[in-house]
């Protein structure tokens, strides 16, 4: 007897171990309707009471009342998905009916219709596979009030009376009608039958007997998670895809706007560069003209006509190009050893008078400093003047200058 019980327990543990290998990963795995959690989630315990009857070849003998007895079941199980689960259950406890005189569980003093009243205790220890029809065909809904759950299983059916014991393999089949009370508690109405050889009650006939029961009880959900979380439904997937398409469109529009803005900036930069190249070419031409201009002489000796360098509007510092033009002027001044006047100019058409006077003076000082500090001209040969003049028909930039003569 103990060996049979241990073997049954080993079989149940094997079923749970196999299931654990399938879902033991703790991370959530999406399906079309729900998320599957860890092995610690969605367990339940159950218990029920009711009545049972022992269907055998002598079921028509005696009173129908003599074929019914109390029924009890206690179980523990787990739902691996909203559709599939497993359960280990103990059920019993007493079977009544009629049988042959030669069988071990009869009362020889009570006979009806050629058969003797039978009474024995038993236990049915079995593991069942549960299948939720509603979750399979009508999608998972944790708020559903009723669910139909058929099951099939196998286990050991063991009898015991007055020291006489027998054991048989039993196949189990049944239906659970489950009514939801709250998030954790359900009411179970269970209809179940065990199919086994008739030898279990000592009858030598090669037939099968069917202990059947109807019980009502409670099922209580335990574990970290008591319900499955909603997963990737078609509606959710469509919403996610729509949002992704909108985001992609927004990013594409932003990218197009950035490209257009970058192209505009490139065009503006190219235009500015072209203007600078034209301006530099003009300045280079003027510089070459100055270098190639022949020297003029008077009765008092050699002189140089005024040589000009030009400034940007509002600027008092020469750019690199105009600064380089002073090299020629410096060499000439040093070769003649004569005194020269540096005159800074500003045009009167832009800005106020006081500002223009300061600009003109600072431009003269700038040229003076460059000739003395950069090109080594004797400062005693140089003097500074400034003047604000009217362009008088010339472009204003033509009088934003300093002149050495």
Helix-strand blueprint:
Elements: H1 2-23, E1 29-30, E2 34-36, E3 43-55, E4 68-79, E5 84-99, E6 106-112, E7 115-131, H2 133-138, E8 146-161, E9 164-180, E10 185-197, E11 208-222, E12 229-230, H3 234-292, E13 296-298, E14 301-303, E15 307-310, H4 320-336, E16 340-347, H5 353-374, E17 382-389, E18 401-404
Parallel strand pairs: 16-17
Antiparallel strand pairs: 1-2, 2-12, 3-4, 3-11, 4-5, 5-7, 6-7, 7-8, 8-9, 9-10, 10-11, 13-14, 15-18, 16-18
Helix pairs in contact: 3-4
Radius of gyration, Cα only, in angstroms?
54 Å
Report how far the terminal alpha carbons are from each other.
131 Å
pLDDT < 50 runs, ≥5 residues: 1-32, 295-304
Number of contiguous helices: 5
> In CATH's first tier, which class of the largest domain applies?
Mainly Beta
Assembly of the depicted chains: single chain
């Amino acid at each position: 007897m103990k060996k049979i019980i241990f073997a049954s327990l080993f079989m149940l543990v094997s079923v749970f171990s196999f299931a654990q290998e399938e879902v033991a990963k703790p991370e959530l795995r999406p399906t079309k309707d729900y998320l599957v959690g860890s092995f610690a989630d969605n367990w339940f315990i159950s218990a029920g009471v009711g009545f049972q009857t022992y269907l055998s070849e002598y079921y028509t003998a005696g009173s129908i009342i003599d074929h019914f007895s109390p029924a009890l079941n206690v179980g523990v199980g787990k739902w691996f998905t909203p559709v599939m689960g497993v359960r280990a259950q103990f059920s019993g406890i007493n079977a009544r009916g009629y049988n042959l005189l030669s069988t071990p569980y009869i009362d020889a003093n009570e006979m009806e219709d050629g058969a003797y009243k039978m009474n024995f205790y038993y236990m049915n220890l079995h593991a069942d596979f549960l299948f939720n029809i509603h979750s399979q065909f009508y999608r998972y809904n944790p708020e559903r009030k009723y669910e139909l759950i058929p099951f099939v299983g196998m286990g050991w059916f063991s009898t015991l009376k007055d020291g006489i014991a027998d054991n048989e393999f039993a196949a189990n089949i049944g239906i659970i009608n489950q009514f939801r009370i709250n998030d954790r508690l359900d009411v179970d109405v269970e209809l179940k039958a065990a199919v086994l050889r008739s030898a279990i009650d000592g009858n030598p006939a090669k037939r099968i007997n069917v202990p059947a029961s109807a019980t009502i009880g409670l099922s209580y959900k335990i574990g970290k998670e008591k319900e499955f979380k909603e997963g990737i439904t078609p509606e959710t997937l469509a919403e996610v895809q729509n949002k992704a398409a909108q985001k992609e469109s927004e990013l594409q529009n932003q990218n197009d706007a950035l490209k257009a803005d970058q192209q505009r900036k490139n065009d503006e930069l190219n235009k500015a560069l072209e203007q600078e190249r034209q301006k530099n070419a003009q300045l280079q031409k003027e510089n070459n003209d100055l270098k190639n201009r022949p020297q003029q002489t008077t009765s008092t000796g050699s002189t140089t006509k005024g040589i000009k360098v030009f400034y940007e509007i509002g600027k008092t510092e020469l750019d690199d190009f105009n600064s380089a033009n002073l090299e020629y002027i410096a060499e000439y001044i040093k070769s003649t050893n004569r005194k020269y006047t540096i005159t800074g100019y500003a045009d009167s058409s832009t800005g106020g008078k006081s500002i223009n006077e300061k600009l003109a003076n600072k431009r003269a000082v700038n040229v003076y400093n460059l000739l003395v500090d950069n090109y080594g001209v004797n400062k005693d040969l140089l003097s500074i003047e400034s003047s604000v003049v009217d362009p008088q028909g010339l472009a204003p930039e033509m009088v934003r200058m300093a002149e050495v003569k």
